Amino acid sequence: MIDKHSPMPIYYQIEEAIKERIDKGEWREGDMIPSEREFSEMYHISRMTVRQAVTNLVSDGYLIRQIGRGTFVARRKIQQKLFGLTSFTEDMKGRGMKPGTRLLDFRTVSASGPIAEQLQIPDGGEMYEIKRVRSADDLPMALEITYLSEDLVRGLTEEDVYGSLYGYVEKELGMTIGYATQELESSVAREAESRTLGIAEGAPLLLIKRFSYLEDETPLEIVYSAYRGDRYKFVVGMHRNRTDSNG
Amino acid sequence: MIDKHSPMPIYYQIEEAIKERIDKGEWREGDMIPSEREFSEMYHISRMTVRQAVTNLVSDGYLIRQIGRGTFVARRKIQQKLFGLTSFTEDMKGRGMKPGTRLLDFRTVSASGPIAEQLQIPDGGEMYEIKRVRSADDLPMALEITYLSEDLVRGLTEEDVYGSLYGYVEKELGMTIGYATQELESSVAREAESRTLGIAEGAPLLLIKRFSYLEDETPLEIVYSAYRGDRYKFVVGMHRNRTDSNG
DNA sequence: TAGTGGTCTAGACCACTTC
DNA sequence: AAGTGGTCTAGACCACTAC
C-alpha cells in the first residue's frame, strides 16, 4: 500500500490511505485510528514520518489528537469544506447546485487608483476587467466584477472565464493560490442590481469584496460580488488561533 | 535566549523569538530570515526542532517558505488576525473600538428541539439563554442571543456575560476553544430590531449564526446575531486547502 | 504498568535556486 | 558549487491516560 520508491512522499501516501479508510467508512467518526507507533511498524517507516501525515490531517480537520489517549476520526466531516477558500463554481457544486455564467463584459483597461495599487500594477499597466452574472441551477445568484493584472495572467480569453477562474489559474497556469481576505456586508438592491438579478428594489443583498493572493503573496485578483440575499448564505469555518490571546 | 531546561518547548521559544524580532521591526516584511541550519547552529538544537517552529509560524501566517530560496517574513502582517476565530469583544478591540454589553435577558430554560440537539443536551437538560445588545464606542452594534449547555459551563453568572464569553471559557474554565462554523446572510430590520439597534425599519442587517466547538468537538455555544449593516463589515481570511480539488 | 501523543536528536539524501 | 527547504531515519525521554 505504501511505495517507498514512489515520487510521492511517504507522508502523503499515508495521508491518502487514512483519508480513503475514513471515506469508505472503515474508520468512522469518533473512532480511534492506529497509534503512530502502529503505523510506523505497519508500513516500516519512522514514527516522525507518520507524525507528519497525521499532523497534516489534523490541521485539515480529518483527525483529532488527544494526549495519552490516541488519535480519532473527527466528527462533522461535512463541515471540513467550510474552512477552505473556494471559487464560485466550487462553492455552488459543493451546495449541490449547477453553476453557470453569463458574461456581461470582458476587457482590458489601464490600471489606476487603489485597484492598481492592490494588484501591484505599475503606472501605465493594464488589467482585465470582467463582469459576470453567476447563476445557480439557471437562476441568477450573484453579480461579479473581477480585476486581474494582465501581466500575471497574460493571454486570458473570454472562454477561460465561463468557468472557475481559480481552476484556470491552478490547472492551466500552474500557479498556487494561497489565501484571500474577504469583507462581507449587508446592503439592499438598487435599480440596476434588482434588474440584473431579478429581485425587487430594496431586497437584501450580500456584498462581498475579495482580495486573492498566490502562495508567495503575489496579489492575484480583486472581486466585488453582490449575492441575492434570498438565495445565498455565506458559510465559513474558523479555527481559534493559538496566538489570539497575545493580541 | 533559548533555555533548554525550561518547561516551555524549545520550538515554542524559537517561535516567540522570531515573532519578537518581526514585531520589533528587526526583520521586515519580505526579508529573508536565517536558514534552518543557521538557527540550528545558533541555538545548538537540531534542525527538525527549528522546522517545527518555522512550520507553526508559516501556518500562522508569519512566515513564507520558498524551496531553494529561503524563508521570508510574510507581508500583510495586519491581516493575520483575520484568520482566527474571535469573540465580539476581541473583534471590536481589533477594530480599535470600545466594546460594551447591555444585558437584556439571562436565564436557564429547558432544552428542546434543534438547539438542544446541536448542543448535545439530553432530554430534560437545561441551557442558558442570554440576550445581549453589543455596542461599539457606546453605540449599538448587534443584537445577540446565545445558548450554552448548563452542564458544560455550570455556575455561569450575569457578571460573566458582560465581557467576552470566549475569554471566560478559556481563562476561568480552562477549556480550549477549537473552531466555529458561521453562516452569514443579508436581511432587513423589522420593527423590533430597528428599535433595539436604533436604525430604521428596512435598513440592512447582517445575520450571523455561529456554532462554536471545543478542541475535542464538544459543542460549546450557539449564537444568533443581527449586526447593523451600516456599521459592521465581517472580515475573514481564508486559506486555499491542499485538498479542495479532491472535492 | 502499558500505551499514547509531545518533544527532541544528529544525522542523511533529495530537488531546487542562485551564482 | 553552494546553499536552501523537503523528506526521512532510528532512536530517545517526557507527561498524560487508562486500567
UniProtKB/TrEMBL annotation, chains A, B:
Signal peptide: none annotated. It holds the Pfam family UTRA. GO terms for molecular function: DNA binding; DNA-binding transcription factor activity. InterPro entries: Bact_HTH_transcr_reg (IPR050679), Chorismate_lyase_/UTRA_dom_sf (IPR028978), Tscrpt_reg_HTH_GntR (IPR000524), UTRA (IPR011663), WH-like_DNA-bd_sf (IPR036388), WH_DNA-bd_sf (IPR036390). Residues 8-76 form the HTH gntR-type domain. CDD domains: WHTH_GntR. This is Phosphonate metabolism transcriptional regulator PhnF. It comes from the Bacteria. GO terms for biological process: negative regulation of DNA-templated transcription. Keywords: DNA-binding, Transcription, Transcription regulation.
